[in-house]
Amino acid sequence: MADRISESLQQKLSARLAFYKDIGIDLFYRDRTSMSRPTASIEGLSPRTGESRDSGVEYSAAVVDIEITESITVSMMPEDTLPKTPRIPVPLAPAMQKPVAPKIVLPAPKSGLFDASDKISGDSMLKIRDDIGDCTRCKLHKGRNKIVFADGDPKAKLVFVGEGPGRDEDMQGLPFVGRAGKLLTQMIEAMGLQRTDVYICNVVKCRPPENRLPEPDEIKTCSPFLLRQLEVIDPKVIVALGACAAQTLLQTTRGISHFRGQWQDFGGRKLMATYHPAYLLRNPPAKADVWKDLQMVMAELGLKRGAKSTSAGKPS
Ligand code: SF4
Questions:
Q1: Does ligand 1 come within 6 angstroms of the Cβ of 132?
Q2: What phi, psi does 191 have (nearest 5°)?
Q3: How far is the CA of 75 from the centre of ligand 1 (A)?
Q4: Which protein residue's CA is at the shortest distance from atom 4 of ligand 1?
Q5: Full pLDDT tens readout for the chain, 316 residues
Q6: 230 lines ligand 1 (CB under 6 A)
Q7: What angle do the packed helices 179-190 and 287-301 form, to 10 degrees?
Q8: Are 267 and 235 in contact (CB under 8 A)?
Q9: What residues contact 64, with CB distance under 8 A and at least 6 apart?
Q10: Which helix (H) or strand (E) holds 67?
Q11: Distance of alpha carbon 48 from alpha carbon 301, whole angstroms
């Protein structure tokens, strides 16, 4: 009886191994290190009962399990009289092993401005503004009213970088003064700071028409000024507001959701990418994520929430 069962099981096992080979699993070796995962019974036998589901033949002497772990293990476990048969571990092919989450490694900024050997000697905000002049380097100059250079403290430890001026900013010549700007101001105050404590600027300094995103050629032309500004300020933390700023500074095309909320390296400085305030106006639930990101920034800067804030509190 036992021989008959054993022979039947071996046939089933052979058929199963052939199946694995058919689907590309043909690397088998013995490995007894991993034997503790979910089980699946061989077709025709219900697990651990020894009863056939289709033939009525009794298999009271043995139960067959296939354990799926880092290896697939076929075991034959006699209930009483049969001698113990060896467990035969079969490894999974690499494609079936537990996937390891890839570590996100963003490329270092390629701008030479962050290479010590290429720094502009004696650079200053005045010089940068002077160099911009009445700029016509890219097509954005055609529709602008005012160049929006920056606002805040040029010695700030914290810099916010947005994508570009909107209508209100274009009229006033200051960044983040419209509705989104008011929300940013609230967030800054919720961090226990004032706008004058931080530095605020954009990737491009002229308003894109209809508030569209800056185009690659415009970013390429204008962003060197931003990089020079950051180099002169030498902040401890940079907060990139929105995908355009984050992708420009990190030189990546990855979506912001891939790295939002995680510290990134920017030329030896810490960079936190988070959602743009204009996005928060359209998607208020995302404020909670931004607030989490800003709390990480506060911790990095040693800030206590609301030290100077009055009514702003957590952005609402
Ligand atoms: Fe010049 Fe920048 Fe304005 Fe383009 S966006 S015109 S590069 S200042």
A1: yes
A2: -85, -5
A3: 71
A4: 138
A5: 667 767 777 776 675 565 455 444 445 444 444 444 443 433 333 333 333 333 333 333 333 343 333 334 444 444 444 445 455 554 545 545 544 444 443 444 444 344 444 467 789 999 999 999 999 999 999 999 999 999 999 999 999 999 999 999 999 999 999 999 999 999 999 999 999 999 999 999 999 999 999 999 999 999 999 999 999 999 999 999 999 999 999 999 999 999 999 999 999 999 999 999 999 999 999 999 999 999 999 999 999 765 554 333 344 4
A6: no
A7: 50
A8: no
A9: 9, 12, 41, 42, 45, 74, 75, 76
A10: strand 64-68
A11: 60
Residue 125 CA to chain centroid, in angstroms?
Answer: 33
| 199 DSSP β-pair partners | 152, 159
Q: Whose CA is nearest to atom 3 of ligand 1?
A: 206
Interhelix angle 125-132/216-233, nearest 10 degrees: 160
Distance CA 185, CA 176 (A): 8
Name the superfamily (CATH) of residues 119-312: Uracil-DNA glycosylase-like domain (3.40.470.10)
Taking the CA of residue 144 as reference, the ligand 1 atom at the shortest distance is 3
Beta bridge partners of 75: 65
Q: Which residue type is seen at 60?
A: S
- What is the C-alpha separation between 239 and 266, in angstroms, rounded? 11
Q: Are 133 and 149 in contact (CB under 8 A)?
A: no
Domains of the chain, by residue range, sit at 2-79, 119-312
Any atom of ligand 1 within 6 Å of the Cβ of 205: yes
Residue nearest atom 1 in ligand 1 by C-alpha distance: 135
Would the pTM of this model clear 0.85, i.e. be above it? Answer: no
Q: 203 CA to middle of ligand 1, Å?
A: 10
Write out the DSSP string of 134-173: S--SSGGGGG-SS----EE-TT-SEEEEES---HHHHHHT
